[in-house]
Amino acid sequence: TMKNPVPQAASLLLEKLLLLVHVRPLSAGSGEEPPAAAAPGYYDTSCFKRGDLLEVPRTLFIHFGIYLGENRVAHLMPDILPALTGDRRQIQQVVTNKRLILGVITKTASIRVDTVEDFAYGGSILVNHMDRLFEDQVLGSEEAARRAEKLVGATAYSLLWNNCEHFVTYCRYGAPVSFQTDKFCETVKMIIRDQRSVLASVLVGLASIVCLGLAPSTTLPTIIVPFFLWMAG
């Protein structure tokens, strides 16, 4: 007999949700700080050119940024802090899981400039890998870098309509597009088409709590985010 695909789809949806917003599930009793990035000099930046589109593939998602030169990468991350303070020193600190989740809930983000090491977190980097999909739309490298620099700072955030991939495709190709969001939406639609989609949504919420803990700072967001994604479908 075939296994029920709904719980499996719900689990996949949860994983994609967490990874698309760059949240790393925390084990019980762990701190909220993300793991340390690679040591300075870990990446050979001599092969990067200003305006290059950098991709860091993960298990279920890809993080994107625009290389600005001199070991600097502009990339978009959900973050609540720019909405609470104008202190650049605080904002520039490593974004914690709590800041990420609250940024998703409040739809706030920051287009920030970090070192290649902080941007990639030890992952492999692909350069201009998406150019093959936009053969006739690739802008000049300097134009792409300037677009990214002009957008640095606080910005609105949407998991589906304004994430890191939308940012880089606008900068390098002139149009905001997100292919991984399209795949994510297909997963959502698959669950909602099933007559037991309500149960699946509940499972996503419960699984979120298990992954992120029962602390008030994580329980409410992890229930609300899957619920509103389900409603939005």
TrEMBL record:
Alphabetical list of Pfam families matching this protein: LRAT (PF04970)
Protein topology in the membrane: Single-pass membrane protein
Listed EC numbers: 2.3.1.135
Compartment(s) where it occurs, according to its Swiss-Prot or TrEMBL record: Cytoplasm, Perinuclear region; Endoplasmic reticulum membrane; Late endosome; Rough endoplasmic reticulum
Active site: C164
Superkingdom: Eukaryota
Signal peptide, first to last residue: 1-28
GO biological process: retinol metabolic process; visual perception; vitamin A metabolic process
GO cellular component terms, A-Z: endoplasmic reticulum membrane; late endosome; perinuclear region of cytoplasm; rough endoplasmic reticulum
Pathway assigned to this chain's UniProt record: Cofactor metabolism; retinol metabolism
Catalytic activity: all-trans-retinol--[retinol-binding protein] + a 1,2-diacyl-sn-glycero-3-phosphocholine = apo--[retinol-binding protein] + an all-trans-retinyl ester + a 2-acyl-sn-glycero-3-phosphocholine; all-trans-retinol--[retinol-binding protein] + 1,2-dihexadecanoyl-sn-glycero-3-phosphocholine = apo--[retinol-binding protein] + all-trans-retinyl hexadecanoate + 2-hexadecanoyl-sn-glycero-3-phosphocholine; 1,2-didodecanoyl-sn-glycero-3-phosphocholine + all-trans-retinol--[retinol-binding protein] = 2-dodecanoyl-sn-glycero-3-phosphocholine + all-trans-retinyl dodecanoate + apo--[retinol-binding protein]; 1,2-dioctanoyl-sn-glycero-3-phosphocholine + all-trans-retinol--[retinol-binding protein] = 2-octanoyl-sn-glycero-3-phosphocholine + all-trans-retinyl octanoate + apo--[retinol-binding protein]
Gene3D superfamilies: endopeptidase domain like (from Nostoc punctiforme)
Enzyme's top EC category: transferase
All copies of domain LRAT, residue ranges: 53-180
Molecular function per GO: phosphatidylcholine-retinol O-acyltransferase activity
PROSITE patterns the record matches: LRAT
Keyword check for Lyase: no
Keywords annotated in UniProt: Acyltransferase, Cytoplasm, Endoplasmic reticulum, Endosome, Lipid metabolism, Membrane, Sensory transduction, Signal, Transferase, Transmembrane, Transmembrane helix, Vision
UniProt key word Membrane: yes
Similarity section: Belongs to the H-rev107 family.
Function: Transfers the acyl group from the sn-1 position of phosphatidylcholine to all-trans retinol, producing all-trans retinyl esters. Retinyl esters are storage forms of vitamin A. LRAT plays a critical role in vision. It provides the all-trans retinyl ester substrates for the isomerohydrolase which processes the esters into 11-cis-retinol in the retinal pigment epithelium; due to a membrane-associated alcohol dehydrogenase, 11 cis-retinol is oxidized and converted into 11-cis-retinaldehyde which is the chromophore for rhodopsin and the cone photopigments.
Name of this chain's protein: Lecithin retinol acyltransferase
Organism: Atlantisia rogersi (Inaccessible Island rail)
Gene giving rise to this polypeptide: Lrat
